[in-house]
């Protein structure tokens, strides 16, 4: 009798073992160990997500912490990369006063390769706008993932064009459970400390007073992490739809090609006042499709003429 479930879940739940391939480094996810399923060809990576000196927790506490990670790995949603397992080990780590034993937890998860940034660069090279139906596929995919996260009180914390992926096998836009593989709130703190303009462009206005300050966003109750994520996604959409070109008023320029509903959605995302900006649950109340009575860009639009007399200044 055939097992029930979608093929992806069946593969992920019934692999026999993981075969180690190599150690790799990813700019977005750090140091990783690359594995492949056996007997399947699907690739996974593992990442160290927790390292605690053994003397700071007893065996029961270690097992309880591992259990929490294993439970978190069970969270599944099609637009979120699957995590399939977590494992622990004890190892010796050099320190100030010699070597000490540490308790470590690794998480195994799918390896996404094609980022939205790379996908947009392909379009930029051909000077073609993204067709509006594809834009809504992107929005709905990310929205479903983020709505799921918010319902589980999980912020993302690192939304950029380089942390949204296109799964060419399943034709889905997908994201990672960034909190699981990056540590709770760690991404917000990392944002605060960065001076990289490519990252700072995604920061919501309410976070900027805390950049390079001693105050942590973790201790700042007025910061709503879900609204911070919404703002970042609005900037992602602007970058993708303008193909990274810098405009004084990008919304006015994009209004020539896209529907009113799409412009309204982006405007709501980049609302500078967090009290007026919706979170993911609130955004679900907006129309997530073009207006029926409007002519929209439903095929690739050659835009070379719009850029011929412009410099190649970008805001990537």
UniProtKB/TrEMBL annotation:
From the record, what ranges are coiled-coil? none
Q: Which residues cross the membrane?
A: none
* Domain Protein kinase intervals: 18-289
* UniProt xrefs under InterPro entries: Prot_kinase_dom
Q: Which superkingdom, per the lineage?
A: Eukaryota
The record's GO molecular-function terms, alphabetically, read: ATP binding; protein kinase activity
What is the recorded name of this protein?
Protein kinase domain-containing protein
What organism does the record attribute this protein to? Paramecium pentaurelia
């Amino acid at each position: 009798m055939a097992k029930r479930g979608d093929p992806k879940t069946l593969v992920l739940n019934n692999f026999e073992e993981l075969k180690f391939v190599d150690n790799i480094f990813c700019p977005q996810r750090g140091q990783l160990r690359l594995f492949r399923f056996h007997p399947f060809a699907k690739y996974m990576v593992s990442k160290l997500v927790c390292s605690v000196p053994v003397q700071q927790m007893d065996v029961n506490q270690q097992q309880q912490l591992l259990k929490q990670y294993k439970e978190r790995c069970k969270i599944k949603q099609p637009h979120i990369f699957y995590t399939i397992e977590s494992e622990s080990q004890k190892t010796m780590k050099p320190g100030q006063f010699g070597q000490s034993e540490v308790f470590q937890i690794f998480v195994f998860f799918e390896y996404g390769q094609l980022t939205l940034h790379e996908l947009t660069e392909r379009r930029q090279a051909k000077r073609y706008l993204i067709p509006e139906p594809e834009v809504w596929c992107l929005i709905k995919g990310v929205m479903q993932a983020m709505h799921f996260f918010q319902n589980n009180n999980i912020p993302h914390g690192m939304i950029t064009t380089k942390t949204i992926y296109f799964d060419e096998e399943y034709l889905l836009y997908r994201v990672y459970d960034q909190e699981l593989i990056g540590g709770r709130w760690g991404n917000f703190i990392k944002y605060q400390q960065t001076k990289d303009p490519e990252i700072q462009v995604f920061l919501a206005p309410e976070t900027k007073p805390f950049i390079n300050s001693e105050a942590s966003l973790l201790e700042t109750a007025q910061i709503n992490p879900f609204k911070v994520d919404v703002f970042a996604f609005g900037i992602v959409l602007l970058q993708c739809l303008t193909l990274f070109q810098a405009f004084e008023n990008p919304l006015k320029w994009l209004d020539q090609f896209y529907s009113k509903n799409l412009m309204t959605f982006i405007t709501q995302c980049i609302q500078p006042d967090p009290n007026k900006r919706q979170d993911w649950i609130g955004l679900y109340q907006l129309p997530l499709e073009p207006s029926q009575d409007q002519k929209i860009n439903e095929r690739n639009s050659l835009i070379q003429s719009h850029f011929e007399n412009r410099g190649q200044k970008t805001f990537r």
